[in-house]
């Protein structure tokens, strides 16, 4: 297998580091990104920095206008992303109810139990399990188009970069909603499963919208 040029590897590394700083809000929305400052901070040349910024621009995370800036978060995008989740995950969950296997149901049940442990698990781990839970359901729909659209929506969802911290009560309520989805899937009741998924997404949207208002 051919090796990637060193310059490409450097650009990928710079891209990953800059993307992390944007996603964790270390670089705030609207903040100017000066190429010379980034080269000094990361101890790299200007070419990989430029290539990384161009890639971030293509992902919608930075914008260029007399300099590079972290792209501001647009409130309308929040609604759009959740509308996509509402449509895609709702329908996919309904289809999954008819096709889901006992093995996948057992996996989902175990994930819900893990997410019940809000006291000892860090929020990052809860997020990881939560993502896997929803991904597993979309996969159970056995429709590659749903999977593709789900992955695109998830990319946009995490690009929102909102400083959202769910309270313990919200986390517990969210997992109760996961249980409702699970019960619909377990009963192979498409209508019940889809409705539970849509209710869960709507509740999450309300939490995110409220958090954004104070941002």
From TrEMBL:
Residues 8-73 form the HTH gntR-type domain. It comes from the Bacteria. Pfam families: FCD, GntR. Keywords: DNA-binding, Transcription, Transcription regulation. Signal peptide: none annotated. Transmembrane segments: none annotated. SUPFAM superfamilies: GntR ligand-binding domain-like, Winged helix' DNA-binding domain. GO terms for molecular function: DNA binding; DNA-binding transcription factor activity. PANTHER family: GLUCONATE OPERON TRANSCRIPTIONAL REPRESSOR, TRANSCRIPTIONAL REGULATOR, GNTR FAMILY. This is HTH gntR-type domain-containing protein. It comes from Thalassospira profundimaris.
